[in-house]
Predict the structure.
Amino acid sequence: MDVMPKWAEVILVPLISLILAAILSALVILAIGEDPVAAVNLMVTGALGSSYGWGYTLYYATNFMFTGLAVSVAFHAGLFNIGGEGQAMLGGLGVALVLLFIPWPHWTVALLAAALGAAVFGALWAAIPAYLQAKRGSHIVITTIMFNFIAAAVLNYMLVNQLRPQGAMDPATARFPEAVHLPNLHEVLAPIGINFSKAAPANVSLLIAIVACVLVWLLIWRTPLGLEIRSYGKSGRAAKYAGIGAVRITMVAMLISGALAGMMAINNVMGEAERLVLNAVEGAGFIGIAVALMGRSHPFGVFLAAILFGFLYQGGAELALWTSIPRELIVVIQALVILFTGALDNMVRMPLERMFLAARTARTSKSVEPAE
Amino acid sequence: MDFLALFDLSVLDSTVRLATPLLLACLAGLFSERAGIFDIGLEGKMLFAAFFSAAVAAMSGSVWLGLLAGIAASMALSGIHGLASITFRGNQLISGVAINFLAAGLTVLIAQDWFQQGGRTPSLIGGGRFEPIILPFAEAARSVPFIGPIYAELISGHSILVYVALLAVPGTWWLLFRTRFGLRLRAVGENPAAVDTAGVSVVGLRFVAVGICGMLCGIAGAYLATGLQAGFVKDMTAGRGFIALAALIFAKWRPWHALWATLLFGYLQAIALRPDIIEGALGFRVQVQLLDALPYILTVVILAGFVGKAIPPRAGGEPYVKER
């Protein structure tokens, strides 16, 4: 029997971790001579105070939903996919190739094709580390880290030597055709009478990200494959005796994970930049780790954590704009969240467990007299 | 075609300089991982040390105080890693990821607060840097054919930390394979329960190993900012911590092999800076991106076990839970 009730496990532990991270972040802000309360106020107005701010918050959140789900699916299989960054880079390459070389009549078809291209490229980039883990026992954390660097080199080569239009200086592809422009939230919401900011980059891929959250939830908790993935994640050996193939689950989980990370590209490459640039991913693959840890690998948790990090990103940009606090503050907060919700999980959990245990023994000893 | 140009003295000279931080970080990782604590936070610790060494050297004018500050900063991060992965038995990989981000963010944040130069330290001058050491008779020996230039260019004229790094290789080998401490340290990475049964503290040994790792990463970072370059710039480690990790696997967790592996990767970095030499020697252009990616590709190949299988310490990555 679990020591803690479920609500404490799901809500209390992440909340306390988050509060600890927030307190430390506030101390950091104090230490560099700024006012934490003013900083939070500025972040809230900047990120949530206007539909323009929301548009950026949700744009970032869309990226993080995809990468957070990617890390989560791998976590359920007991695998730590640290390669979301590289998989998202390759996803961007997939999107660019699909959109540049095939003339699409309408953005809807183009979006489906681009999503497929992104997913296939992301999945393929995850497939090699997955195969090496499953068949050769190479540690997937190390291989996915290496594949991030290799992906950066591949992208660099493709942009500098192959895809760059003639005469262009910066390493980027040509702009995608006008026909594949994705409607942003202004265009989506205008017909139903909501006036959303025109300038913000949030677009229809947000809806796809939400659908992806639902689909991942269905996959993990409502399908036989999801059961197999979770059993394998809990105990590889037990799963083996139950007839679940380690190679198959490792491959399938990583392919889904890589596909999800890759699909981020429909938001940042197709939706926002409308061309592929060198640093398109901007660390979103790594933020997926924080998002998945924060959201306890549950799609709804990932959804919420992605919005939180979207808020932090947009708020951080506002801070950098209006105060002398650099954008890197967000990286520090992200590190603290990973530290407390991931690595120092037991530090938060152990005292709580002791508390609940003490509370329970007190209750039982009161109701049932000791049989002496 | 001039194949020998690939081994031009200037290229070899920069190989030694570029391999030094890799070697120090690689040996750092070796101590930690041999004791059963995976460390993917080498990058962050180096970066943290690079910043604090440059910052303190810039403010005090003494590179030695800078070195100490760098070591202290890196060891502080090691303490966090130890707390998370040894005391609270958390996930060592996640802790490493957190440390990398913590360093990447804090260095720029503090640099901006202290120096207001966009996340960098002022350029170091004079006593703020490690100066090259000219070994005795280096100039006199230059005229001796073949050996003379090698001595004068390649062996002489590096900063003291380069020689420290080279000496750390036999030092590590001796400590790990010829002392009781080393035997215990290796045992704790293979079978901690046995060490515990023998009455030796697993937690204590692992903390010492993580501490040594922090110290070596600190020297590596200080070398980057005060020896190789003159000051700290944002993200200046540029993936070196991960190349060191790759070299560690390439070396199969052995000190002498770590030297050869980091020299190889250092050479790849050095030759990548001279595309003209490669083209002249091989007669065709090699893509720079391929050279950049080569250490990582080689590591994956090694990890895949196609060229001699790399087997990590058996208890690596697993927190030790004492039997009750």
Remarks:
- DSSP finds 16 helices and no strands in chain A.
